[in-house]
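Onboarding guide, step 5: your first structure request.
Type a short instruction followed by the sequence, for example:

Predict the 3D structure of this protein.
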Amino acid sequence: MPEMTGCDHGGVPMPSLLTAWLERPGRAATGSRGSGETTISPHDVGAASGALPPPGVEAVLDALAADPPDAEEISHALTVFAWERAAETRDLTCVMAEVDELWATLEDAGGVPLRAPAARHRLVDAWVDAVAAERGSPGIDPLSGLHTAGYLYGRVQELDRLSGTEPTALVLIVIRWAGASGPWLRIARILQAASALRSRVRPDATLSQVGTTMALALVPDDARARVERISLTKAVENGELSTAHVQVDVFAVPDTRARLPELVTRLRGGANVDHAVGLPSYRHSGTGSLD
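The system replies with structure tokens like these:
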């Protein structure tokens, strides 16, 4: 039986990835190291606490338990896990050991589509992003004053933890606009969008700047979110957002939280996605274009 990693999470008991995987209902890991085949059951690692694992751990377990598991899904889940662990402990070595011991067990049992070196690489990259966002006062974009995308991902996990066992119903109110050729136009458009979000979206929303052509607000999935979207659309119509080709939409935050970074990346790239909710999308060319 492998020795379980024990990380310091600020004095709060927290199962390692391997422990949570072995304690998953109906889950038994088999291995082939040594002379014979062995089976590790939840009882070998101690009685289960009965508590659900935190969202980051759950995201990894869900991705690995998919039929069939997908390497991209696992990579997204490791990103969420890294952000969660970075908020709990400063010991990256210990967190990497969690991934290593789980992957060793999985590879003994027949493998996993995302190989161990790739899993470690994804974990470290996401950890660096998380620490950088935290040190950036905390996760603030220096130009717009809005939060970074990394902070947004962490905020979703925090809201889920506060809500209990069910994921919180959340949406993103997204403002996208045409890119500008010059730096001053780019700055002006970013500042206009940030100002519109602050003035027309509830004060407790998490506002985020993503790149130079998109800003968004994370809010509960409620009627007020639709009103705020309409208010932002009117800001385009009356010239408050005098940027060409402004697009205001509402998108559901995926229940599988590990897909949120992919959704944000696709939206930033201008892709049409299937998470749109509420009223039909509005696209306006704006008035008084900065061009």
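Each response can be followed by summary notes, for example: Residues 7 and 13 are 9 Å apart (CA to CA).
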